């Protein structure tokens, strides 16, 4: 019996020793795993998880869905992702470059809106002012009562004057020509396919066309930022290209952003692509000119790079300040990036501020993000969003027409899933 008792004690002792050793080894392994995961994260963003986004974009190039792209993500003012994929031009098979110069199209609108609000801070106008106070030709505008009949349809007088706030928030009743009605089609033709000498010519063309609704009665994506551009010229005494260069581009170091591309940089220009009749992605037959542009629009017209636009976004995320210079007050940015249109903006969980779309209800949006995120995109499939809560900015630049929101949605999906802190 003593032998049996001794054996049991020895067995128990050996078991305890082995168990202790196992637990120690497991603890070391777990600690090593935590260190490895920590080393794979930058600013709380998992590099491994963000690789999923890169793999997705590579596959889109392989499948011929996009010619190429530049992707740039920052968190807490640090770059966590910067990659180029595919080709600048499928025709020339030139590899995409991180410093490729893109038509940013409607991503012009946030820049011009910020420039315009700089003049607000200088006291040039009130948001509630009627536009006709500064541009008298806005007094007697007409509103179409049957958009299906186009420009020849019946009209009525405006019931109230268009205000500056309505220009910034796309509630003035103007159109961009994208709505699909006969009136929209004819507005697009008049604005963008007929020759315009300068921004004043384009705005005068706009106000000769009937509005699609009464001022303040609807949110309707519009050419109203072109009016902002004309007002910038009136208030500043400079044309919009000069104002942007002096007040935003030069101070921020946005050397590749402007309405024209210098000859020395045109090799970095990225042409737009589309599907041909056979369903293959090809260079578009018609390209917008890269030089000689004289209509300095607020709706579109700027060229930029991912790095330049990121700098602009970082200034906004940093409460209007960048490298010791204050471009806008935080209070001005606050009113620009909250919903200013009530329930007029129809996208679930979204609203519209002064120059930006804004997320107002995360559950209703059915996507990852944060309340207070603000964003926009361009007609050739360029996208950005700024998330102040997460100190996060994401940009995706490609050149494909027609526009679709798919890559904007996927960008959010992949970027947000990579946050691990």
Please supply descriptive tags for the structure shown above.
421 residues; alpha+beta; 8-stranded antiparallel sheet; two-stranded antiparallel ribbon; 12 helices; 18 strands; 37% helix; 16% strand; disordered N terminus
Task: Lay out the secondary structure.
Elements: H1 2-39, E1 41-42, E2 45-46, H2 47-62, E3 68-75, E4 78-89, E5 94-95, E6 102-103, H3 108-121, E7 142-144, E8 155-157, H4 164-169, H5 182-193, H6 199-208, H7 224-236, H8 240-252, E9 273-275, E10 281-283, E11 303-304, H9 306-317, E12 321-322, E13 325-326, H10 330-336, E14 350-352, E15 357-359, H11 362-365, E16 374-378, E17 382-387, E18 392-397, H12 406-417
Antiparallel strand pairs: 1-2, 3-4, 3-18, 4-5, 6-11, 7-8, 9-10, 12-13, 14-15, 15-16, 16-17, 17-18
Helix pairs in contact: 2-12, 3-7, 6-7
């Amino acid at each position: 019996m003593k032998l049996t008792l001794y054996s049991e004690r020895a067995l128990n002792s050996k078991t305890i020793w082995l168990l202790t050793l196992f637990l120690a080894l497991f603890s070391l392994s777990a600690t090593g795993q935590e260190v490895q995961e920590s080393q794979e994260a930058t600013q709380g963003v998992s590099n491994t998880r963000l690789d999923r986004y890169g793999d997705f974009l590579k596959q889109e190039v392989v499948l011929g869905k996009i010619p190429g792209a530049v992707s740039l993500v920052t968190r807490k003012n640090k770059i966590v992702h910067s990659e180029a994929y595919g080709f600048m031009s499928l025709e020339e098979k030139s590899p995409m470059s991180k410093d490729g110069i893109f038509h940013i199209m409607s991503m012009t609108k946030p820049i011009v809106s910020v420039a315009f609000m700089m003049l607000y801070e200088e006291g040039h106008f009130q948001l509630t002012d009627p536009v006709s106070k500064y541009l008298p030709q806005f007094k007697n505008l007409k509103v179409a009562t049957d958009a299906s009949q186009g420009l020849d349809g019946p009209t009525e007088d405006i019931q109230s004057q268009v205000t500056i706030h309505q220009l910034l928030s796309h509630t003035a009743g103007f159109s961009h020509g994208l709505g699909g009605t006969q009136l929209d089609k004819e507005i697009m033709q008049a604005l963008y396919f007929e020759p315009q000498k300068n921004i004043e010519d384009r705005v005068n063309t706009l106000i000769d066309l009937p509005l699609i609704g009464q001022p303040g009665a609807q949110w309707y994506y519009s050419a109203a930022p072109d009016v902002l551009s004309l007002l910038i010229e009136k208030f500043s005494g400079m044309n919009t290209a000069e104002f942007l260069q002096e007040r935003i581009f030069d101070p921020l170091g946005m050397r590749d952003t402007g309405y024209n591309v210098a000859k020395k940089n045109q090799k970095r220009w990225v042409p737009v692509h589309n599907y041909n009749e056979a369903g293959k992605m090809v260079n578009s037959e018609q390209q917008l000119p890269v030089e000689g542009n004289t209509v300095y629009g607020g709706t579109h017209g700027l060229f930029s790079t991912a790095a330049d636009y990121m700098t602009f976004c970082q200034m906004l995320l940093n409460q209007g300040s960048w490298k010791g210079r204050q471009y806008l007050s935080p209070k001005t940015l606050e009113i620009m990036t909250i919903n200013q249109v009530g329930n007029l903006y129809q996208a679930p969980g979204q609203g519209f501020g002064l120059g930006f779309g804004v997320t107002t209800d995360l559950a209703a949006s059915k996507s990852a993000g944060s309340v207070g995120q603000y964003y926009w995109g361009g007609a050739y499939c360029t996208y950005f969003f700024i998330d102040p809560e997460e100190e996060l900015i994401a940009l995706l630049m490609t050149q494909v027409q027609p526009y679709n929101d798919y890559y904007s949605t996927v960008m959010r999906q992949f970027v947000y899933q990579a946050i691990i802190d």
